[in-house]
Amino acid sequence: MRELVKINGRNERADSWWIAVSPKANVENWQELDKLGALREIMYEGNDENVIEYLESRRLIKTLKWSGHNQNDIDIRKTHLQNFAIEINTGTCVIRLNKDVKSLEISGSTPLKKIHIDHPQEGRLLRIYLDMKDQELPDFNLPRLTDLGFKNVSGIDIQSISSYYPRLRSLRISGVPGNIRNIHMLDKIKTLESVFLHDIFGFRGDDFPDTKQLPDLYTVYITSFPAHAKKTLQEKLKDCPNLHISKARSEDWLEANMNNPFRGWDGREGMKSSCAKTAFNAYKQACSRIMRLLKTRSNDNDFKEILSDFVQSFNKIHEKQILETIEREEVGDVYALLLEKAGHTFDQKPYTGWFDQWRDF
Questions:
Q1: Is the pLDDT reported for residue 264 higher than 70?
Q2: How many CB atoms lie within 10 A of CB 124?
Q3: Does residue 222 sit in the same domain as residue 253?
Q4: Strand pairing partners for 63?
Q5: Which residue has the higher pLDDT, 5 or 240?
Q6: Are 322 and 254 in a shared domain?
Q7: Exposed end of the chain (fewer CB within 10 Å): N or C?
Q8: Which helix (H) or strand (E) holds 85?
Q9: What is the spatial distance between Cα 104 and Cα 126, in angstroms, rounded to a whole number?
Q10: Whether the Cβ atoms of residue 336 and residue 311 lie closer than 8 Å to each other
Q11: What is the pLDDT of residues 246-259, one digit of tens each?
Q12: Cα torsion 184, 214, 212, 237: sign
């Protein structure tokens, strides 16, 4: 039987390498976490800035994922963190990084242009991953940035990337789907070693640079992209040592799946096409029912039934198709999206817990 320790009134496994701290499991004394001798990662939801002071004297804790902080100035220069994920919903925010940080992830409602990043090496050996949504990429004044990634992109311009971050080695872009502009300007980033594009459209195969223009290019991974570009891409990049091109999409597919959060299931290895279709239908039905309720007088039980039916659809899918970790997380993300669509017409707090109660996957 695994040893348990009590931390601020809660039982935790003594050998846990990570811990989630939320308003429901509030840490009154951060030193209590020292009972977890193998602790390496903290996921914290709350606004207690003392978490930073605690981390400054804990060399083994390398990862912090922080949401709900409400801070305008976050200084982790004295910590030993290597991975920092921050959700920012304040008006403006300054993030001061230490020299050991390798990965910075930024999400939240604050416009990226209101975020300032202070890095002692101007981005050298740093990877930044941004939740773009409908924003433009700002200049973070990190000309030596090594690795840049984006998710939830609806539109992106390679001209700004090549101008602000000319020494990139790796570029990752994932759309919703998204459109890319000036993809030919990738050839301005001569240091590029890897390019990853997923659900990105609006370009031709002729627009993409070839391996002669990008001599250090070693890995190209393009999935879910315009079908008409496939043949040309394969020809231009045939000398790339690690080339993966898949899921060429027609214009009809793009039109049908533009608003499908489960579009990634279509063509995924090991995923049955019927399950991908069922997942999309469950989403569409839930959206339709929510929209109808928003136009009428409704109550909590109405929304509860809709969301419960949505989860039950995936319980049935799970009987035919084992849903792996990534699929379970995606269903959870779409469940949260449905809550967002419902707005503030009811108390949403219980629903986060009900998701886990309802699901069998």
A1: yes
A2: 14
A3: yes
A4: 41, 83
A5: 240
A6: no
A7: N
A8: strand 83-87
A9: 8
A10: no
A11: 999 999 888 888 88
A12: negative
Are residues 161 and 249 located together in one domain of the fold? Answer: yes
Pairing relationship of beta strands 10-13 and 4-7 according to DSSP bridges: antiparallel
State how far the alpha carbon of 236 is from the alpha carbons of 116, 220, 273, in Å: 38, 11, 31
Match 């790339």 to its residue by tokens. Answer: 240
Q: Report the range of poorest mean pLDDT among 43-57, 64-78, 344-358.
A: 344-358
pLDDT digits (tens, 9 = 90+) for 175-184: 989 999 999 9
Size of the chain, expressed as the number of residues it contains: 361
Match 């319980």 to its residue by tokens: 315
* CATH assignment of the domain containing 228: 3.80.10
Percent helix, strand and coil across the chain, each to the nearest 5:
35, 25, 40
d(CA 186, CA 4): 52
Alpha carbon 27 to its chain's center: 26
Q: CB burial class (10 A; 0-12, 13-18, 19+) of residue 60? A: exposed
Give 150-158's long-range contacts (Cβ < 8 A, gap of 24+): 150/174, 152/176, 153/178, 153/200, 154/178, 154/179, 155/179, 155/180, 155/181, 156/132, 156/180, 156/181, 157/181, 157/182, 158/182, 158/183, 158/184, 158/185, 158/186
How many C-beta neighbours within 10 Å does residue 44 have?
19
The dihedral built from the CA positions of residue 131, 133, 139 and 144, taken in this order, carries a sign that is: positive
Decide: pTM greater than 0.90: no
* Confidence check: pLDDT of 134 > 80: no
Q: How many domains does the chain have?
A: 2
Q: Both 240 and 280 in a single domain? A: no
pLDDT at 105: 97
If asked whether residues 184 and 331 sit together in one domain, one would say no
Torsion from C-alpha of 162, 168, 170, 171, nearest 10 degrees: -20
Start-to-end Cα distance in the chain:
26
Q: Are residues 38 and 186 in the same domain?
A: yes
Q: Are residues 314 and 228 both part of a single domain? A: no
Range of the domain at 131: 4-264
Domain-ending residue, one of 264, 281, 301? 264
Pick from 231, 264, 297: which residue ends a domain? Answer: 264
Residues 252 and 294 reside in one and the same domain: no
Please provide residue 61's backbone torsions phi and psi, each rounded to the nearest 5 degrees: -85, 115
- Number of Cα atoms under 13 Å in the Cβ half of residue 249: 24
